[in-house]
Design brief:
Blueprint lengths: L4 H23 L2 H25 L9 H20 L7 H35 L9 H17 L6 H20 L2 H7 L3 H25 L5 H20 L1
């Protein structure tokens, strides 16, 4: 069994977060926020996996401010992109959102030195168990997680669909860091999982956009956009 797999990947993802933060301070590239959040999601998945297989508590609280603030900006950026797809896209609404985004970007950049301190401190404190448990324990973990994911679909509702995606993505992140020998034993159909989560992700972008735009100042135009999105969301959800 390979040694120190969990710590190795956590350290790598933390290094990536630090690099992306430094780069974002220089170029403000929106895609960097996505990569920051993705790396933190992978770290959280590893910690959740460690808690389950070792029956211990591990915490990622230091990373939450970075994850949440980057998420707020990503939400605005995704919705601006979506609004541009309308036949006569709402220029005034997009301008208002861009102004809101720019304000959040400035605050985020101002706090990057502090966020980097959080990341470095977290990296120094990473002490997950170095030896993975036996194959039986890991296979049992994936079987249990699959069942949890499938249970989310029982009510056939939107929250369950969203939670299903979260759970299968967590399994995918954990599966990716395991030695190849273990991956073969688990027999997780990674390609099928990835195809599923992408479809659900496209639906959820539309669903989230409806909630987001509904909370903006009311106007006849925003009501029209919400109506268009509602129709799109229903089609996407029914297709799932």
């Amino acid at each position: 069994m390979e040694i120190d797999v969990l710590n190795h990947y956590v350290w790598c993802y933390l290094k990536s977060v630090e690099q992306q933060l430094n780069a974002y301070m220089e170029d403000n590239e929106a895609e960097r926020l996505h990569h920051i959040r993705l790396d933190i999601k992978k770290i959280k998945a590893i910690y959740s996996f460690a808690e389950a297989i070792y029956n211990e508590s591990f915490y990622t609280n230091e990373l939450n401010p970075i994850f949440n603030k980057a998420g707020k900006m990503r939400e605005i950026q995704i919705n601006i992109k979506l609004l541009h797809t309308f036949p006569q896209f709402p220029k005034k609404l997009i301008a208002r959102l861009k102004k809101k985004e720019n304000s959040k970007v400035k605050k985020f950049i101002k706090n990057i030195p502090l966020y980097i301190k959080y990341v470095k401190y977290f990296r120094e404190e990473v002490t997950l168990p170095k030896i993975l448990p036996d194959k039986k324990t890991i296979k049992k973990y994936f079987k249990k997680e699959r069942q949890k994911a499938n249970n989310e679909l029982k009510n056939k509702d939107r929250e369950g669909m969203h939670q299903f995606r979260i759970k299968i993505k967590k399994m995918m992140y954990v599966y990716n860091i395991l030695p190849e020998e273990l991956q073969k034993k688990i027999e997780l159909d990674f390609a099928a999982f990835n195809k599923q989560q992408k479809k659900i992700g496209k639906w959820h972008d539309t669903f989230s956009a409806i909630q987001f735009i509904s909370n903006l100042p009311f106007s006849p135009k925003t009501e029209e956009y919400i109506s268009i999105l509602n129709e799109k969301e229903k089609r996407q959800f029914n297709a799932l």
